[in-house]
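Convert to structure. Protein one:
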Amino acid sequence: METNLEFNKAAFFKDLGYEPHPGQLEVHRSTAKRRVMACGVRWGKTVCAAMEGLAAAMEPNERSMGWVVAPTYDLADRVFREIVLHVAAHLRHRIVMLKEYERRLVLRNLGGGLSEIRAKSADNPVSLLGEGLDWVIVDEAARMKPAIWEQHLSQRLLDRQGWALLISTPKGKGFFYDLFRKGQSGDPDHRSWNLPTSSNPLLDKATIEAERERVPDRVFRQEYQAEFIEGSGAVFHNVRECATGVWKPPEEGIRYYAGLDLAKVEDWTVLVIMNKDREVVFCDRFQRLDWQLQVNRIVGSLKRYNKAQVWCDVTGVGDPVYELLKKEGCNVQPYPFTQKSKAALVDSLSMAMEQGLITLPKAELWPEGLEELESFQYSITEAGTVRSSAPSGYHDDVVMALALALWEIRPSKPKHAFTVVQL
């Protein structure tokens, strides 16, 4: 087995018909152990990372192991599928094993050894334990919890002196930003690049500029110009400023309004109740309870707060619960969740908080509520769609229940320059 053969990466790319643009070429030429690409959407990060991983897998070695990791499997699949597509088109004779449902590919490398590539999700940190790695590609790194990199991935590289390539559009100034700055410091083991979408010569500049008019300035600066902007990804602002209230018992003669978001699998069922002054006075949050027990608990809370009117998510599992609440005599209103209807809820809640028209309990009283609101974020998809959602590893149940509670007494309709698509 030949493991000391010289591997020519440029020639390998040429054989595959891959012609990296100048920015991608810089990344491919780097030999730094830690590489960070903080670039705009559609810059070519996915293709660049996939080709770097494939080149590493084809280097002559007796055995090598590389991972593609992202906050979710769907995101990890982007780079992994790009690798598989190139292998299927040009290196099919090198395939030893391909199990797409396991996201596992084993190749016979140019030295005759075996190289394995696997796609992993950071949703389940336990799956990231154990193996030593020759390389790892981390997609959407800025949207990943710091502990995943610090406590799981970086440690996998130690015994084999492996390299890491972290790619993402910027998001705030977390651990990804810290690694990016290290790459700018002159440290030979770290290298980083910060390039806007417009630096991709394959894209039409006029189309990019048209996006500047379509989306908010902070979205364009972060997603297209690849700027690190503190807090720019947050959908809700003034969260802490609004958190000055306390939990309040029901008062006679006061009308209350509630929002109910029902659990889906691992999520939480959340009931939020507020008064006519838009003060959140009560929240109940629970999971993994029998539906009838949930209904009993919800009915008890609504009756206690003067038979509060409740807007209820009636999507999927919500519909039978809605019917049960009606049978119990609750003043329940249906709210089907669609992309458009959820966007309207988020817009309404965002505007109320922006204008200080809502009062939340203090941070020490409602830590999980404030954490959800502050982590809720917007981003731009690869297709250029603006979306908002809870990041991987977080929930949005409190956010949606709060927005539903506000719906009946919401301020005037928000006037945003873009439409948010919910996930």
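Protein two, convert as well:
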Amino acid sequence: MSYSEDVLKMVTEKNADQPEFIQAVTEVLRSLSHVVDNDPKYQNASILERIVEPERVIIFRVPWVDDNGKVQVNRGFRVQFNSAIGPYKGGLRFQENVNLSIIKFLGFEQIFKNSLTGLPMGGGKGGSDFDAKGKSDREIMAFCQSFMTELYRHIGADTDVPAGDQGVGGREIGFMFGQYKRIRDVYEGVLTGKGLTYGGSLARTEATGYGLLYLTEALVKSKGDTMEGKTCIVSGSGNVAIYAIEKAYQMGARPVTCSDKNGWVYDPDGIDLAALKEIKEVKRARLSTYTDYRPNAEYHDVNFKERTGKGVWTIKGDIGLPCATQNEVLLEDVRQFVAGGGKYYAEGANMPTSPDAIEYLQANGVFYVPGKAANAGGVATSGLEMSQNSMRYGWSFEEVDAKLKDIMVNIFKNIDETARKYGAENDYVTGANIAGFVKVADAMIAQGVV
């Protein structure tokens, strides 16, 4: 058994109750066999055994009082995975399905994603099984303040800098930042995704979606092709999907689908961006209301948990952009995407595609880029926000956007060149994993056994 296979077996046995974490580690370690199995320096330093084990896992209770005066209790998490190249950096996710496996998979992915940006950021992730749906602003504030009352002990501008993720937007970041400042009596860039009035960065809201399209454009151009006139199949309707759709239009492409937890929309004339923003960002309503704005569009109810009914992937398109959540795209979905002429596929969400679906995409000539590379624009711009906070200075939208584009184009060049170097041309999974790993691993070796 090879070194990487031996470590994967160990991880699987030790974390048998954590399927998402095992899935993420499996994908990475199988790619890294190109590097670690024949290089004694990584084996002698037990780099794989160390990189799959978080430096610190924090689990805590979060008690808060609802509007009826009843005490509610949630569970909070922060996994500080690796700080070899910088302070821990990664979002906070508030969703009812959050558990240790999901937070560990996200934190593990974050190590390599942050490394690929070229910025000095380690990998971490956190969150809670709190669900904001149906909660008042006061209840959300009460939860966020209680969450930060414990989390503040473990974070800091040069230690661990959380950001937003699913369920955590500007409102939640504001409540948490206020509580941190109140407790610590320190005004520092301890969170990113902040409002513009208190240290936030322009272009942060757009960053993940815009970055996804900057990398996709680089991919398409590398094949002698153009974004102009391409049909994009987008899943999701949150922050990433909305701004991926916006940037796709700016590049001359035509996004025709989006989705939420209850169903999806197909608009053959192209998604009405203004309607989508009003539904999701203003009214916080369901996509089922989209046809009120565009009567010629189709809305389809789907039970995504039970996988009943067809999804967005039945629509013919050139570019697939999954922007919803982990394991949302299964084998049958990508079969339909390929049958419909799909050629490019870049992940806006974290690990949205099942392993057998990824294999099918690659086996059928689709150029596939994993989320750790394709959706790195969000954390890259968070890193730029950290820089601005440290300098007590703010860049213009155009300056941040230009830096974001440079980072995303460089990420594609890096993973493309790395894949070629290791004899895996067009295998951007291998390229991303190796390129992200080598920088972190070499830093770990340089810092000794810690």
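The first helix runs from residue 3 to 14. Residues 215 and 276 are 23 Å apart (CA to CA).
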